[in-house]
Amino acid sequence: MKITLFFLLLSIIPFTIYSQQDKDEFNKLLSLSIDLELKERKIDSFFEHTNEQYDIVLADNYHDYGVFLFKKWKKTNERENLRKAILFTKKSLSIKDSLQIKSPKSLDKTLYNLGFFNSRIQEYFKAITYLIRLSETGQLDKKIVANSELSIAYKNIGDYHKALSTIEKAIGLCPNNSKYDKKRVNFYLLKADIYSSMGYKRHSNKIKSSLQKADSILQSVSYNPVKQKNSIFQIEGNLLLKTENYREAITNFSNAISRLHPLDSNYRAITHNSLGLAFLKIKQLDSSKLHLEKAIKYNPSYTPAYENLGDFYITKKEFKKGLLFYQKAIQYTFDPTKTYDYNNIIKEENLELIPNKYYTLNHLIQKANGWMQYYNHDKNQDHLIQALKTFKIADKLVDVIRFESSEYKSKLYWREQASSLYMKAVEVSFLLKKSEDAYYFMEKNKAILLLEDITNEQAKENAQLPSELASREYQLKQSIYLSENKLNILDNTSKDSILAVKKEIYQHKRGYEVFVDSLNIKYPEYAINKQKVKVLPYSNFTKKFISDKEVVLQYILNDDQGYGILHAKGKSIIFEIPNPKELIRDISIANYQVTTWFKDQDQLRAYHKIAHHIFNQLIPENVYSVIKEKNVTIIPDYALQQLSFETLITSKHDHSYLIKDTEIRYAYSMSYLDQNKNKNRNPELNFLGVAPIDFNIDNLSSLIHSKKEVTNISDIVSGDILLKEKSIKDSVISNFDKYNILHLSTHADVGAISNPWIAFRDQKMTLQEIYATKNQSEMVVLSACKTSLGKINKGEGVMSLARGFFYAGTNSVVSSLWSVNDKANQELMIDFYKNINKGFTKSSALRNAKLHYLNTHDGSELSPFYWGSLILIGNNTPISLDQSINNWYWFFTFFMIALVVFIYYLKKS
């Protein structure tokens, strides 16, 4: 919904106070009552013949001329006038900066105008640069408007979480008096609008709260609040529309439109569009078309109305007309002057030039869906090919939006938005039997932000960033994570304390942005390479990961659809998952059942029944016949990320677990698996085992078997152990970066789901704190509860402790899906390391440990509760446990260096 223009128009119009006597000639030119074009030529001539000494008078003249050109642009709507306004205002700023003027009022106005003008020409990133400077150095009133303009700019580039933080800052800066009432109402309306853009259903309570705060202020204002009241009606109507209360929405919009000024073309377009969409939803097509056409009449550049007309014609099965209107919506977001056809596709090189990428993305997705409906009508596969092309360009646009969003939460938001796109793209690939395309879109649906981070690390190496700069970049990120963790763990704290931590977070993020911007300028190769986040090409994927013994099973799942692909040597099988809602419900039941042992045959049979049903849905017979006796890498999605595939039941026989037929490991994505294994890891030491045993926090129970677990493993492994009082948090963290294997035998939990924790002797360590560490380990073993669980972010994955250790640098993680049994876990871990020591791959070592457990226990101890929780994620290569190998490696390296130096000096002499 494009109500942003309203807030822009209500912002302070830039004016300048003239005071110097030697500005008389320039002021006289400005005040001439002549044709605007002639006046502009005279002023241009004035500047051409002016002796351009750098003084404040000339700076003010440039500033005032910028204001004149801006006003001229408002009258003529000629873009060139706005460009010239920006040019002369930049000249004004350049002089003021060079003079280091002491008048903050003069500098504030020029900075504000540059931000304001650039926003009006949709150069949002340039606007943000000036507005950030003003928000940091300006006087109070200018800081307030700078933050509100920043919020609008961030919203327009899709960085919604930054938009929210800046508008909240603007609200917080406003003194609590009637002079600021109008601003505060506008800010709450803008806040509601940002939440609306992020999803009406998901954020309905926050939208309502913002509107209520705006409305409560309006009850006592002294001015006429008609426009602000209409904004409230508009947002409330859209909330009704999105929550499927269509008739109430129509009443709301009709009331709103009756209050609008006849010349308020922008708001009339928005409201008529909303009415048209509401009538379309209740199949009153004539009324729908009438209002949509009125919307376009009032504002021909308002693209959502064209998209809704596309929906209108698709509903009437006039598919070519519908597709034409979708294309018109797309075309108008970046160049309304060009001719177009419904078959057109945006060129990839034009994507970064689109000002409002959010609208364009919606139009592209809707057009692709239109092509799919066209296919459903006549079964012409050419329509599916067009849909696939459109989804591919939409995917490229999602990448651009993600790169432009610097706030991590905004990146996660766009990952979630893209997940529905990728599901539909996989559906098209399934219908076209295009396994390679399905593979690509499934990869794009997972762990892209992890891949982005590791690409950033590689970009530093490729650009040969000095080590001190690379370290500084890491330290700045580290400070952000630690500050965010501080905010997460605040409990029953005063508002002032919360605001202080939020300010600290903002300062760290701002410092990081400034530093990275400087790196991008000084090291352009780094700036280019860090954006090259690419999916592993299908040909490379099959070459590296598919063989006679190795197969890969990928999934994509949401509440309404699901698909899987088996990649095996010489073939791939793509299949649809039936009844996703039922599957997700069954997984939830099965996960609950495995959290305890089976006390009787009834519980065993109940689990067998549901686990067998899940198996049949996820692994059809033609897939099962291929994966038997193979090593399977599983890339799960959504609810499947909380499922232990090994514990699924393959037949009606008792305890016919899938683990008996296949060796299974997991990965976040094949692209990340491939990139992560190439990371440079040079740990000094071999093994570190940690077991607090007893705890001094939160009444955590003692883990008496963990001591035996770690000490027995230390008999197998050459390395170090930290037990009891030696396993304090700071001591363990200081060793994270030194060891090839980290083994943590302790308590852990998902906590508040968004910030899981793992316990040491004296303190807990949260996921945010793990993000702030580095490790060089080949393997991290989390012998603790629920270390693979956490908040599921659609399109990205589970925010678990395991993911945290991958982010910090490890190559593989052994983690758990539910609360483990201390004694059984100890047995499994010791056998696991014995198998590792024999040269087994990690997944083979874990599988054989589990099979040994199943073969040596009976009765209720065969329940998956005891053995099924632990899974291997990541790289599967064998790992050496012999410290002497590591010592020989360093000895050999030192010897070779010494030999080279000796030969060099021998030749020189």
In summary, what is this structure?
The chain is of the alpha/beta class. A hairpin with a 2-residue loop joins strand 2 (562-568) and strand 3. Helix 6 (104-120) runs parallel beside helix 8, helix 10 packs antiparallel against helix 11 and helix 20 (408-432) packs antiparallel against helix 21 (435-444).
Helix-strand blueprint:
Blueprint: H1 4-10, H2 24-31, H3 36-48, H4 56-76, H5 79-99, H6 104-120, H7 124-137, H8 140-156, H9 160-173, H10 181-198, H11 204-218, H12 226-242, H13 246-259, H14 265-281, H15 285-298, H16 303-315, H17 319-332, H18 357-378, H19 381-404, H20 408-432, H21 435-444, H22 448-462, H23 467-488, H24 495-522, H25 524-529, H26 538-545, E1 550-557, E2 562-568, E3 571-576, H27 580-593, H28 601-618, H29 621-627, E4 631-635, E5 663-666, H30 670-677, E6 685-691, H31 704-716, E7 720-723, H32 729-733, E8 739-745, E9 748-749, E10 757-759, E11 764-766, H33 767-771, E12 779-783, E13 790-793, E14 797-800, H34 801-808, E15 812-816, H35 822-837, H36 842-856, H37 864-867, E16 870-874, H38 883-908
Parallel strand pairs: 1-4, 4-5, 6-7, 6-8, 8-12, 12-15
Antiparallel strand pairs: 1-2, 2-3, 9-10, 10-11, 13-14, 15-16
Helix pairs in contact: 4-5, 4-6, 5-6, 6-7, 6-8, 7-8, 8-9, 8-10, 9-10, 10-11, 10-12, 11-12, 12-13, 12-14, 13-14, 14-15, 14-16, 15-16, 16-17, 16-18, 17-18, 18-19, 19-20, 20-21, 22-30, 23-24, 27-28, 31-35, 35-36
